[in-house]
């Protein structure tokens, strides 16, 4: 994957979303949350980085890493790929709630959530996943495209 992302400065953009494609059903142990079966399809993960947003995105896009966060466990599964990313100045929870989708594993990515999101990973319809794909940066993008 890519180690040279150039998203907007964290001072103005601290939340990010990863558009994820699960090619075939995957059974994954997600840390203390336990084992879950993720159906094939599109998923959206919303997170935030208090310090280096670039470092956080770069870490998520690497295949080899220590499994630290819930999302690491899913991304390490065979057939699971980050197909795009984007950043925002919106709060993580506000952005997560605005996107819609279905919570498939309560608590996923939301251990510190105080806004009642349920989870920060959502299953999207195929049409919504395809629609979002056109609005996300590709993981192979070395610099942020103008106007995005």
Which key terms come to mind for this protein?
disordered C terminus, 5-stranded antiparallel beta sheet, alpha+beta, 148 residues, 20% helix, two-stranded antiparallel ribbon
Q: What features would you describe in this structure?
A:
The chain has helices at 53-61, 70-75, 92-98, 126-133, and strands at residues 15-22, 26-29, 35-38, 41-48, 80-88, 102-103, 121-124. The protein has four helices and seven strands, in the order ββββααβαββα. It has 148 residues and is an alpha+beta fold. Helices cover 20% and strands 26% of the residues. 32% of the residues are buried. It has one domain (15-132).
**Strand percentage:** 25-35%
**Elements, N to C (H/E):** EEEEHHEHEEH
Count the beta strands.
7
Distance between the termini: 21 Å
Q: If helices are DSSP runs of H or I spanning 4 or more residues, what is the number of helices?
A: 4
Number of domains: 1
Shape: globular
Q: Averaged pLDDT, please?
A: 86
Low-confidence stretches: 142-148
Q: What structural category do the secondary elements indicate?
A: alpha+beta
CA radius of gyration is: 14 Å
The strand order across the widest sheet is 5-1-4-7-6
Q: How helix-rich are the residues, as a percent range?
A: 10-25%
Most strands sheet: 5 strands, antiparallel
* Assembly context of the chains: single chain
